[in-house]
Design goal:
Helices cover about 45% and strands about 15% of the residues. It has 26 helices and 17 strands. A hairpin with a 4-residue loop joins strand 15 and strand 16. The longest helix is centred in the middle third of the chain and has 19 residues. It binds adenosine-5'-diphosphate (ADP) and zinc ion. The site of adenosine-5'-diphosphate has 17 residues, from helix 3.
Length: about 625
Amino acid sequence: MTSPGDHLETDDALRVLGKVFGYDSFRGQQREIIDHVVDGGDALVLMPTGGGKSLCYQIPALVRPGVGVVISPLIALMQDQVDALRAVGVRAGFLNSTQDLDERRMVEAEFAAGELDLLYLAPERLRVESTLQLLGRGSISLFAIDEAHCVAQWGHDFRPDYLQLSTLHERWPDVPRIALTATATRATHAEIASRLNLDGARHFVASFDRPNIQYRIAPKNEPKRQLLELIRGEHPGDAGIVYCLSRASVEKTAAFLVENGVDAVPYHAGLDAATRAANQARFLREDGLVVVATIAFGMGIDKPDVRFVAHLDLPKSVEGYYQETGRAGRDGLPSTAWLAYGLQDVVQQRKMIDGSEGDAEHRRRLAAHLDAMLALCETVECRRVRLLAYFGQESTACGNCDTCLSPPKSWDGTIAAQKLLSAIVRLKRERNQKFGAGQIIDILLGRRTAKVIQFDHDALSVFGIGTELNESQWRGVVRQLLAQGLLAVEGEYGTLVLTDAAADVLGGRREVHLRSEPERAARAGRSGTAAKRAAVADLPEEALPVFERLRAWRAATAKEQGVPAYVIFHDATLRQIAAEPPASLAELGGVSGVGENKLAKYGESLLAALAEAEA
Ligand code: ADP
Ligand code: ZN
């Protein structure tokens, strides 16, 4: 960089945006946030994934004198973040536990000499007095606290090391601080502000909507098959993330996909560090890999072209779900968030909460998170309206979620609920027995299974009173009564018991509304053979081979330089080049995403690849 801050003209921020990053205008509130921080103000920024948070601290760090210090928990990604910045000519470095002493010393020296624009730091570094002393020796332009929700105990991602970030302000009262996060309910938002002493900061709250993501929640029957159908039907060759709850199901699902011809790798904490790092690196660097993972994967993964995020198990909270699904479609192109959800998920999660360590307050918090997640799954309203409401934002039906695209019917399930609840009551009163959902449903359906005969359950008065529904419908009823808090599960076997609230249903004082189970999981939108990969949607037919050629050029270039493909250019940039091929370097420089540094570095080579493709 040319000594930032010294003699850039009036609109420094806009110049840096164009010159360094190759973009011609700010998005959303970026302009206001950047101006505020450049002027030395503190800021708390709530913006969804893909909203463009990074520029909100990177540009002020380049415009203000001194080094911008970025606190981030994403150690594994710092190298890529720094590479991406260096690719556009920004002098960036990082300090974390993955480095050896020599590497650290070198970065420290660069920092002290004022030779960096940005320094990324893991939060635990700040526990070490020598780091604080190092910071004291340089000149700091700002502190950026990334993933700021990690400071909140109410949230889903608490990191104790974040608590000490409040002391930065005491030591450097004149250095502006900007805290950023993509997940914040009102409770988390308030907690971030108070724990980081940001009460005097300006709050910037963007819309949390991610309109390009299609949200779908499907009844789970054969989850692996359903997943394969999703990938084959809608996302062949696309990059995606599949979340599973357990390591075992991660392994099984990844193996299943590979057997069925999908390029997939597993990722979970049980794999050795080298395998994990290699799988993550492949995902970032290659174009169409699927990662099957536990939620250990993905924080801060800023790969822009993840086309789908699938959950094979129920997430534990709406915040977690929104953050995980938010990893899809950062580039703004159409993407899918798909979740398969069934009775067993509810049973399992309730059991996990009951068996969890920690005090009653902690369990109450977990239960509240789960209830909100269940309410989202069972809603007959627009999913997006519910999601945004959870983050305190009002909206209207979106037209791009499963309930909008094929509205589910709701039905009066009061009588069904009464039948089910009374079957449980009878077993308890007359036999002093408790059973799980399977046996109760067999009784309602009047099935003389071995277990029914063994326990003489065909003699109960409730035997066979529920033949108007089939098994999967009854499972839906059980699941929804659990979700609505009218039933609870107990013990190792997940036996069903009534809650206090159930008395009102049995007494006819409360109606029960249920969502009807679609016969077959409706596959909304872009389906079947008409499916087109999102990355090439809207591209004119003749531009397709050009786009593919450019991607091949990008893959080769990325490999040669050992960086992720998107560090070279994003899909969106290649699309624009394929659609309207520039005739000269100057024209290429006008394409969004092509800054001065990249033009100088890749311009010739890209134009050559383009000429070949067009020949
Ligand atoms: P976040 O950190 O909020 O998830 P990023 O900072 O990674 O989002 O930005 C998301 C994507 O949008 C990136 O690919 C980034 O280069 C791009 N982007 C950000 N701001 C702009 C802008 N003003 N114009 C064009 N693209 C932008
Ligand atoms: Zn909707």
